[in-house]
Amino acid sequence: MNEPVTLELTQHQRDLVLEGLRYIRSSRRFEFREPSAGRDERRETDLRMISELMGQLEPSAASSASAARAEARS
Asked: For each of the chain's 74 residues, which pLDDT tens digit applies?
């Protein structure tokens, strides 16, 4: 169930997927919830997973993250 899936996307397809992820992220971030309800683990997990997926799809973010990790090891 957690097996990696490889997709070949054109630049335009990748941009559309990222646009959709940004929309979903905004929707999750700003959805109505009671202030007194406390932490929402599902919401936080969804936001974290969306951010990770966006990072995988954005080549500049992936290369800068790799560079930051390499610099941190030095």
From this structure: 588 888 899 999 999 999 999 999 999 988 888 777 778 888 899 999 999 999 999 877 544 444 444 554 44
- Going from the C-alpha of 21 to that of each of 15, 27, 29, 52, 56, the distances in angstroms are 10, 10, 12, 11, 12
Using alpha carbons, select from 46, 54, 45 the residue that is nearest to residue 19.
54
Instruction: Write the CB contacts of 31 (distance below 8 Å, at least 6 apart in sequence).
Output: 43
The Cα-based distances of 44 to 14, 19, 38 in angstroms read 24, 20, 12
> Is the torsion defined by CA of 58, 62, 64, 68 positive or negative?
positive
Burial of 53 (0-12, 13-18, 19+ CB in 10 A): middle
